[in-house]
Amino acid sequence: MRTNARLERKENELKTQQCQIDRIIELSREEYLEFSRNLLYDYEFIWDNKDEMYIDKEGIAHCMLVLGKDITDGLLIESEGASFCRYAGILPNANLFVDTHIKKVADFVVQEGLNNAENGISSVDFDEIYKYFHTTITPNNGIGERLFKEIQGRQEVAECIAKEDSFEMTYKLENCKACQHDDVKESMSLLSLMRCNLEDIHLIHVDEEHDLATIVELCENTLTEQGKAYWSDILSAKIERIYTGFYGLQIDVSGCSPERLQDFSFMLAGQCSEQDYNKWVNQTEMDEGFGMDM
């Protein structure tokens, strides 16, 4: 097994410096190799982030980690206001180190959100993440983007939005224990449940049989204002049961007409006139990515 290390000659002790990685920069393989051979050159990406690299009053070095595509190790940089590498050190297996840490933080964020979710929605502050992991999160420091992508890829999460100071997560219905609890469902309407971003569901009337249609997606932004008004009786229907059944994810409702419930499902499945569909259903999709929701 091989890695890289700095070997000191005839030293009585090996001294280390505690480092805080506040930014990650990833270069192409060629750029990284060129950079690693010329650390004393001036670099724009170091100059642009010079204020983030310093030694604090506790003696901790706030550093930038420079990675190279398809390169195992990385370089820790502390420039102290310069545009070149005033201090530098190799971080062996840097990519593995970063990936492991990001997964650990994502585990915490997703579980913490689940534990505190209301109607399938929860948020975790960036300050709380820093408190437990000493991990700085911003929209463009290379750490926030990686964590955001990891959270988005978790099977429990239907949607993740990066706020100014937090991640807001909407959980898939089957993973949200709060949505399954009996006392929550007693007061839960279909409209409130739609905040959970429902996917591939079937709405079933508890008292009468009717034809079913698969609703591919149903969230709080699915319907237009006209749609919400026209289908207000269905949106106010009471949630009786949420379960996995013969058709997949099934939701039993009461307090509405079975015929209207059937028409609502078929409408969302596109089985209505184009004029009505455009009148009742929003056609725009939300942009994805680590964009700040101000």
Can you offer a commentary on this structure?
By secondary structure, the chain is of the alpha+beta class. It folds into 3 domains: 19-92, no CATH class; 96-172, Ribosomal Protein S8, Chain: A, domain 1 (2-Layer Sandwich), CATH 3.30.1370; 181-280, no CATH class. 32% of the residues lie in helices and 26% in strands. It has helices at residues 29-37, 44-47, 94-115, 126-133, 143-152, 177-180, 182-185, 190-193, 225-230, 232-235, 258-268, 274-280; strands at 19-27, 54-55, 61-68, 74-78, 87-91, 121-125, 157-163, 166-171, 198-205, 215-218, 238-245, 248-254, 292-293. Strands 1, 2, 3, 4 and 5 form a 5-stranded mixed β-sheet that branches. The chain has a 4-stranded mixed β-sheet with strand order 6-8-7-13. A 4-stranded mixed β-sheet has the order 10-9-12-11. Strand 7 (157-163) and strand 8 form a beta hairpin. Helix 3 packs across helix 5. Residues 285-289 have low confidence and may be disordered.
- Element string (H = helix, E = strand): EHHEEEEHEHHEEHHHEEHHEEHHE
Number of helices: 12
Bin the strand percentage: 25-35%
Mean pLDDT: 86
Judging from the principal axes of the Cα atoms, what is the shape?
elongated
Secondary structure: helix percent: 25-40%
**Rg, nearest Å:** 26 Å
Main beta sheet strand tally, sense and closure: 5 strands, mixed
Number of beta strands: 13
Q: Cα distance, first to last residue?
A: 48 Å
Structural class: alpha+beta
Quaternary organisation of the protein chains: single chain
Low-confidence residue ranges: 285-289
Total number of domains:
3
